[in-house]
Amino acid sequence: MISFLCLKLKCLFCLFANMYLDIIMPFTLSAVTLISVILNSKVEGRMKYFFQKKQITNKEAVFLVILVIILVTIVAMSKRYGFIDPLMMLFLFSYSSLLFIFSYIFLKKWHFAIAPPIIFILLYLFLKDTIIWSLYLANIYAIVFAILITLYFGSIFTWKTTWIFALLLTIVDVIMVFVTKFMFEAAKAGLSLKLPVAVILPTFPSLVGTMILGLGDFFLTGLLAIQLCKKYDRKSAIISVITVAIAFFVFEVYSLNYYPQPFPATLIVIAGWLPVALLKSIKEIIE
């Protein structure tokens, strides 16, 4: 029996040894999500106070998905018809506003809060064509923005509106990746402008290229984990982070070896998170 098990493990090792693998992106996604979950428990009270304890309604969740459709379509069309400069201004304004809002929430003084957005804009304008920006600063800012967006929406979403938003967003993502192709064109537009719209990391241990994961996918993973933590406990959130990372690892194995094409990452996020959420919901009903 032991020899048979060893043989199976040896065959499994040989199988993976001949495959392209990546652990960097799943690990990064897990780390960023865990940071968001931990920070949310520390800043949620201040966020609710600043936004006057507002919680998003079902209609507003649907409206947000509609807004995503509109924005992605505009970005994709801007790239197609060459309206690049307005697109860059839109992104810079949005990112700078987000940095200012969070800086003001915690620093309480506008003349201090204005420094982070100014620094971001200056770094982008002067370094966007350098390796320092492409390899390091763009990824750092992308991760920072993903965490900030997650913390903001994590404080105003409820358990019910999260389900509605995640379901509709996944459907929209599938359509805009496989049917209209707008999601792919929008991503290319942002990347062509050197904007921090995605995290781009080399694959490891197989050094065969890079993996790209958009801010929206980091945000969705963080939002779902935070809501699971608020609804049940942090342990459930951590388990969901692990299962989502496993789902991404499995997908990347498939993508790197068999199907290297754009894919709606929201499906992978849902595939990793949904089993944990359903099991906790069923357990709650039984108890």
Could you explain how this protein is built, in words?
This protein has 287 residues and is mainly alpha-helical. It has one domain (21-286). Helices cover 79% and strands 3% of the residues. It is built from twelve helices and two strands. It has helices spanning 2-17, 24-50, 58-81, 84-107, 110-113, 115-127, 131-156, 159-178, 182-192, 215-231, 234-257, 265-286, and strands spanning 198-202, 210-214. The model is unreliable at 4-14 (pLDDT under 50).
Short structural description:
This protein is mainly alpha-helical and 287 residues long. It contains 12 helices and 2 strands.
Radius of gyration: 20 Å
Helix content: over 70%
Tally of domains: 1
Instruction: Report the total helices.
Output: 12
Key traits:
287 residues, mainly alpha, two-stranded antiparallel sheet
Write the layout of secondary structure elements.
Layout: H1 2-17, H2 24-50, H3 58-81, H4 84-107, H5 110-113, H6 115-127, H7 131-156, H8 159-178, H9 182-192, E1 198-202, E2 210-214, H10 215-231, H11 234-257, H12 265-286
Helix pairs in contact: 2-7, 2-10, 2-11, 3-8, 3-9, 4-6, 6-7, 7-10, 8-12, 10-11, 10-12, 11-12
